[in-house]
Amino acid sequence: MSNSYRLLVKNAQQVVLICSDGEKYLTKLGMQNLSVIENGSIVIGSDGLIKAVGPAETVNAEFSEATFDKVIDASGMCVLPGLVDAHTHPVWAGDRVHEFAMKLAGATYMDVHRAGGGIHFTVERTRAAAASDLLTSLSGRLVRMLRAGTTLVECKSGYGLELQTELKMLQVIEEARRTLPINISSTYCGAHAVPKGKTVAEATEDILQVQLPRLREQMSAGTLRVDNIDVFCERGVFDLDSTRSILQAGKELGLNINFHGDELHPMNSAQLGAELGALAISHLEEVTDEGITSMAEAKTAAVLLPTTAYILRLPQPRARDMLEAGMIVALGSDFNPNAYCCSMPIVMHLACVNMRMSMPEALAAATINAAYALGRAHTHGSLEVGKHGDLLVLNTTRWEHLIYQLGGHQELIRYVVIKGDVV
Ligand code: NIG
Ligand code: FE
């Protein structure tokens, strides 16, 4: 006979709830005042959802240990929600270690791109790769992310730039969703670059007339699940008008708008996203003051990517200005062949040191706000009754060690739990 409850984590020195009033996102004040229980316990039911969380003495008295499949004594340890990575490009073949060397020697991201490298290099190899090989490498990367504490991750297509390969990538993501415990939010990013030999207008036409209609067919047949639509809105890539028409068409298919904007040049992507009701815009290194104001008003989340600014030596995203303006700030690893980082603890560390966020702000950005950016804040991103039992148990008495110990997460993360199962 199965027990009534799946998991009890008891007597944790700290249980970091993040929030406790059903908030769907936090802005500056909330991020600075995270909800934390000292000496707490948490109960996950047989459906994988959180049934109780609170002071250890109350929870321990209410639930008999005999009714649990598993009990973890977390004395001297901390419990946090699983981390949420709001931006990754994890499906690709080949690597670009040679380009890292070029960039260290002074080439910019766009120098490499214009010379036919960068995204184009990865597109060639990904088009040629078998789906089974892409799935193998994707699975390895997702397992690395899990070990680093990520329990919900956004995964983009975007190294096909034509129907067949874009679908192949989305199907590979779908297969990973079926076979791995990590939660996935999938994104169609057919407008990640203009394919070689095509103009922006031709590429846009192909997306609107060929790729999106096929996506619609597969989605309504139930053979493919896609959650978001993305475009790389950038000078020399997709301009504002083509970005608008692609995002609008995606929205009509029911996809959340979540795109790359204002990264290398100010493009007014922020204003466009706010106008279209985008859930999130990523990068924003070059966002203007007006862009910040419009995103704050529209509640469009900023997904900041500290690894990209670090590797490409870009100006840092203006996290402090965004927080002061009341924006919803989230974080992502931007894992891709340019920024090879699977670790949200490292991302939070960089956000603190380079973007001047505090540790509580960075944790909120990598949990509830990243979940908001993916439209999942009602089920993920905090430890509240009714949400998924996705959590981390850290072998330390203060949760801040996860950010403070640069690269120390491998030792610190004792258990990663998804829906009450240790994975
Ligand atoms: O978010 N900026 C565009 N896309 C990715 C990079 C993808 C690549 O270089 O392969 C990014 O950084
Ligand atoms: Fe990206």
UniProtKB/TrEMBL annotation:
GO terms for molecular function: imidazolonepropionase activity; metal ion binding. GO terms for biological process: L-histidine catabolic process to glutamate and formamide; L-histidine catabolic process to glutamate and formate. Residues 79-423 form the Amidohydrolase-related domain. It comes from the Eukaryota. Its EC number is 3.5.2.7. Keywords: Histidine metabolism, Hydrolase, Iron, Metal-binding, Zinc. Pathway: Amino-acid degradation; L-histidine degradation into L-glutamate; N-formimidoyl-L-glutamate from L-histidine: step 3/3. It is an enzyme of class 3 (hydrolase). One of its GO terms (cellular component) is cytoplasm. It catalyses: 4-imidazolone-5-propanoate + H2O = N-formimidoyl-L-glutamate. The keyword Ligase does not apply. InterPro entries: Amidohydro-rel, HutI, Metal-dep_hydrolase_composite, Metal_Hydrolase. Its cofactor is Fe(3+). The keyword Translocase does not apply. Belongs to the metallo-dependent hydrolases superfamily. HutI family. PANTHER family: IMIDAZOLONEPROPIONASE, IMIDAZOLONEPROPIONASE-RELATED. NCBIfam families: hutI. This is Probable imidazolonepropionase.
